[in-house]
Amino acid sequence: MRKRNSPLEILLWSIALPGFGQVLNGKLIKGILFIFLEILINVNAKLNLNILYSFQGNIDKAIEVTDYQWAMFYPCLYLFAIFDSYYEALKQSDRSIPSLLSIPFVSAVYLSTIGVMFSDTIPYIIPIPPTFIPLLAMVIGVWIGNFIRLWIIHKRNVQS
User: Is-contact 14 82, C-beta < 8 A?
Assistant: First the structure.
């Protein structure tokens, strides 16, 4: 009998690398697919070089090396893999799944994708390394999405 991991543990492993959460959930084919897609997009977008140059403060070089056509795929893959593994872990743990759980993930995808789109121009306006723009947008997206989720739940409860 396989040990079940906590949904929080699955969530954190999936944040570390898309696909790890699925593997821990016992969904090997899906996990391997996510890991393969993460590597494919990461290598083609040259995200690791973008991260390296961003941390070194070399904004021009970070923007120059990045293939934004490929980078646009990353937020969707990353956040869907996190959501999928967390949702599956909640189901496997027999815990109740929070109402409208997907809304913070969806809003994070939208805003982080917009962050990718503007990460080659915003650093020239505000000196923020390009790697951090989609990450900040993702955090803001989760926050806004959770606010919307709680607002909808509140409206439902008031109308009941």
Answer: yes
For the purposes of burial, counting CB atoms within 10 Å of the CB of 76, is it exposed (0-12), middle (13-18) or buried (19 or more)?
middle
Indicate the pTM of the whole model: 0.90
Return all residues near 15 (Cβ < 8 A) that are at least 6 apart: 82
pLDDT recorded at residue 84? 97
- Phi and psi at 153, nearest 5°, equal -60, -45
In angstroms, the CA 78 to CA 33 distance is 12
Grouping H, G, I as helix, E, B as strand and the rest as coil, residue 147 is helix
Give mean pLDDT, residues 77-87: 97
CA distance 144 to 75: 16
Q: Quick: pLDDT tens for 54-76.
A: 999 999 999 999 999 999 999 99
Residue 117: HSE in the Cβ half-sphere, 13 Å Cα cutoff: 6
